[in-house]
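Record pair follows.
FIRST:
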Amino acid sequence: MKKASQILPMEITMDSAAMLKTVRELNGRYPFLTVTTLGKSILGKEIPVLIIGHGKKKALYVGAHHGMEWITANLLLRFVNEFCELCQADRTVYRLNLSHLLQTYSIHVVPMLNPDGVDYAIHGTTPANPLYNRVIGMNGGSDDFSRWQANARGVDLNHNYNAGFAEYKRLEEREKIPCGAPTRFSGQEPESEPEVRALCNYIRFHVPIKPILTLHTQGEEIYWKSRGKTVSGSEAPVRKLASLCGYTMNEAKGLASYGGLTDWCIETCNIPAVTLECGKGTNPLPVSAFFPIYARLREVLFVSPTLF
């Protein structure tokens, strides 16, 4: 039996290399953890999926749509590590028998959907990047990418889903977002980006899957509607999640209400989905914010599959 000390430290700056290293360590440690891949990013980086359990009831958690929100990958990898460690120790958590949960549910975790954007936000870019001149131009000529949200070629992944896409393109024109940018450019068409296309295909293949939790920062809010639309029966579980973490149930407004994963799940797939705006402060949140955020969300991550 392993001890709690086997939980890996997550108070680190989680770039794509650190994420992959952590995934490999977890995969080698827990025989009941399966690791597969969505595919690769624009710049050829792996986008792993960690699957806990083998039950027919499936849930999906997704982190780091946005580069500067890399701390969401820390949160999800900590959850995977802790779940597996406690299960191996045959522990009961929040009145859940984790060994039994593994037989009934499978929890699919994509810790970092946008590894290129994360690496831009943490490290910037160099002339070795084939897109260097293009992205420097998108970034206003600056080499400070700390607030970069988009993928490697300037598409905001959380506006690239097919949910109000045509309406959003008109808003882009009004807001003078004509091409690739650090944030808010939706791409030429829905699912134009390999990261989003791969995730949508993964969801389609695994239907029925519920809930889908998307982690962003910041605001301590739970978005659970898409332009007034909801999935029948989702309000009570979302209220329970809100009570567990103390976040406020809310609805995205303006540009933020178009083209996101939660929007696509609700409007197109009729899948109960929520966006968790984790923590409070100014993005990018510092790694010192990791533990307080995780402490608030821990029960949500453990019990969400059983609520929907």
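SECOND:
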Amino acid sequence: MVKALSTAVFSAALFFTASQTTAAQGISLAAHRAIYELSLDPEKNSTRVDSARGRIAYEMRGNACEGYSVNLRQVTELNTGEGAKTTSDLRSATWEDGTAKNFRFKNQNFINQELKDEVDGTASRNDDGSLLVKLGKSKNGPLKFGGPILLPTEQIVKIIQAGKSGGHFLEARVFDGSPDGKKAYQTLSVIGGERTGDSADVEMAARIPALSSLKRYPVTVSYFDKESEKGEQTPAYTLGFELYENGVSRALRLDYGNFALKGELKSIEFFKQTPCEKNNRQ
């Protein structure tokens, strides 16, 4: 269960922002820091988990010329009954360049303050669209994933584009470095119709002009492990969120199969961002 949690969280980190290729596509991103409070989702019939609480701290910096760095930390306390509690501390740091050709990642998973899993590496796109992945501590040679394959922020840009054009589905293979940097996932994104303004369920932290004036799209992304399952599949995990057109997310939902967590946006801070055009002139 903890391994599934870490895999999904590392992927979630990469869905809180959009791709660096947005400059040429008219999608403007906001560098920001967001804090989400986690709780057990009562709408999910949970097994093996009686209660849960936690927090996600997410920070994105950079611009479409320099690339974007994304740092995420999720601390979750799970109560599995009879006084058994497990604290998971998940940390992810990534960077993707402005052309979606180069990607760096480092993921760590601490259980009850003890490091259980760690992976770091790089990915680069070849001219034929395939992806070459080098793991930092691996004694083996690079891994090659045949195309077409997307990097995670590249995928989210396509989701934003689909939402803007009225599309509702996006299917793609994605490499995001989780859980061990050795696999790619088949994904299916379902995108709802655009929403604007503040509805009754919008968190107070999101009721600010910087967000209220923007379009947002309800998104559900299902991850399928094609390599380990055959025939009809159920998702290995599912991520849900409302995605603003500037890359900010609210109303998180992380479904791990046996249980699901809700993430309420508690605070958001926007950073001053150097325009991409200024960097191009230097």
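COMMENT: Confidence is low (pLDDT under 50) at residues 16-24, 278-282.
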